Amino acid sequence: MEILIVVGVIVLLVIIIGGYLWATYNGLVTLNVRVDEAWSDITVQLKRRADLIPNLIEAVKGYAAHESQVFENVTKARAETLAVSSPADAAVAENHMQSALKSIFAVAEAYPQLQASQNFLQLQGELVDTEDKIQASRRFYNGGVRELNTKIKVFPNTLFVRGLGFTEREFFEVTDAASIAEPPRVQF
Fold first, then answer.
1. 3-state DSSP assignment of residue 37
2. Which of 15, 18, 47, 174 is the most buried (most CB within 10 A)?
3. 119 neighbors 90 (Cβ within 8 angstroms)
4. Which domain, by its residues, includes 69?
5. How do the pLDDT tens digits run along the chain, 188 residues long?
6. Is 186 exposed, middle or buried, given 0-12, 13-18 or 19+ CB atoms closer than 10 A?
7. The domain that contains 139 carries what CATH number?
């Protein structure tokens, strides 16, 4: 009879531990997929913004063709944004893009005809909308990373999750927070 009680307790412990491992593993997989999805959303929005940039450059170029350095900087920043593969790369590219966009809008301020152009105004609106979506995507991504990293670091998960192949993910942190505190100013 005592052996049955011991075996029953052992079986119960194995079931509890197995259930805990199963739930933890599935929770980590879910969070990992959510973080991957959020990163994908960021790259989609960065691509959308990059697709708007050539049209914006062309609209401004017609009025300010002599500002070639500004256009080159925006083009370089666009290429850098399209080449990102990690949150750290994206943060650096984001700093460069924000700086480049600020300079192109500074040039645009000097041309009242450009400011009145319907095409330019539409591009500005789309860019502001895209910047808002990038910020929202970045918040969603960082929230997912926070949840995943917390689940990896808490005890007793920290004892075994790395052995299952789960690692902490990097936050999308911009090194120059002031450069992205607000979308580029596009009001004239």
1. helix
2. 174
3. no
4. 2-180
5. 889 999 999 999 999 999 999 999 999 999 999 999 999 999 899 899 888 888 888 877 777 666 777 888 888 888 888 888 888 888 888 888 888 888 878 877 777 777 667 777 788 888 888 889 988 999 999 999 999 999 999 998 888 888 888 989 989 886 665 555 555 554 43
6. buried
7. 1.20.1440.20
- C-alpha span between 72 and 56 (Å, rounded): 13
* Residue 67 in tokens: 């500002």
- Other CB atoms within 10 Å distance of the CB of residue 109: 13
Contact 59, 119 (CB under 8 A): yes
Q: Is 40 part of any domain?
A: yes
The reply to whether 53 falls in a domain is yes
If you write DSSP's letter for every residue of 68-106 in order, what string do you get?
HHHHHHHHHHHHHHHT--SHHHHHHHHHHHHHHHHHHHH
Start-to-end CA distance of the chain, whole Å, equals: 86
Quick check: is 80 in a domain? yes
Q: How far apart are CA 55 and CA 130, in angstroms?
A: 14
Number of domains in the chain: 1
Domain-embedded: residue 188: no
